[in-house]
Write a structure and sequence with these properties.
Helix content: 10-25%
Largest sheet: 6 strands, antiparallel
Shape: globular
Strand content: 35-45%
Strand order of the largest sheet: 1-2-3-10-5-8
Number of strands: 12
Distance between the termini: 21 Å
Radius of gyration: 16 Å
Length: 168
Amino acid sequence: MSTIDHVVAAALERSGLPDWMPEGEGKWSLPIAFLPEGAGWVELMRLRPGVRVGLHRHSGEVHALNLQGSRRLNTGQVVGPGGYVFEPAGNTDWWQAQGAEDLIVHVVVKGAVEYLGPHRSVTARITTEDRIFDYRQYCSAMGIPARDLQLPDDGAAMGTGADDESLR
């Protein structure tokens, strides 16, 4: 089993999900944690090659680490495996998965994500509460209990939810 397979297996175990949550054609996510007080979320995001994340703006900062595959940013920069991208609050961008394999990115999103349409009008806004709702709704549809992925306010580490030995 490859390192990325271990990472995905751990994220699946932590979330209690049997598979990635579909989010649209060629796009999936795996929630890892929800930050205290609705401050953001941590997830793995997976896209098929050629799938584009449309124009969007972040109200808070974003940290993204490519674990597998490549993506081309709207600046033309290509970010490959192991590449890290920091997006400050207010950043507006789009990007696209490219290459022969699925892109898997570990992201920490603070604040909300606003998808933009013509004249940069907001067409959709995604908050921590929306991500929690999506996770719980998917668990319900799958007939499995949703786990508490909310990080504690004290910043204490959390295990997979099933086996805290994973932290030792």
